[in-house]
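no rush on this but wanted to send it before i forget. theres a chain ive been looking at and ive put its sequence and its fold in token form underneath. please have a look and point out which stretches look like helix strand or loop to you. thanks a lot i owe you, the record is right below:
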Amino acid sequence: MSQPRRSPHDSYETETTDHQTETETILLKHLPRNPDLPSPLQRDAHLQFLIRNLIQGFPSRYISQDASQPWLLYWTLQSFSVMGVALDPNNKQKAIDTIMVWQHPDGGFGGGPGQAAHLLPTYAAVCALAIVGRPGPGGGWDQIDRRKMYEFFLSVKQSDGAFLVAHHAEVDVRGTYCLLVTAHLLNMLTPELLESVPAFIMSCQTYEGGFSSASQPYFSPEPEGPPTLLDSPRPPLGEAHGGY
């Protein structure tokens, strides 16, 4: 495998090209000297990073991720799990107590204390509890309000099978994934919840392959009763993306 080449340069230096050069210089320092040999996992360095964030908290620069607190904790716990490192009971309980503060009184989990329920942090919070939680009082798993969670899921469901990621928010197929996984983990995957969902996901396919974030539904007006969803057209919205 050949070494990567630097970005082409037209000899017209700007602040942007300076930043590009500085970034590439940093990245090149981290590439293995022999590209044919795999780079070893820096296990000790990763563990030090994770322990510092778990015990001391994240640095101040993470303030921009205030609405992603469940994700930060989930990624941290998942990293410990992947590397086969078990947490002590005290830190497990701290994680459980932190997660439960994010539960919204009307169902689901928000991105932080007092924040609106959202499908994506709901997924992260439940997955985090799947790692550190346990049945019984104080274990988190039985303290998830499943009835209100289910009501929240239905409240964001749309007639075409899509889901809003939160009340008054956008449709995003990633939210559908998060909802389905969460519902499966909590044993609440019902026909009512799944109705029209496969058709919505299929409609997000693009002509170039892959999936977009959503599709545009069209409805036929009816003289009496609500309009009827048309099978076609249902064009995808936006480009295909690896995250979708």
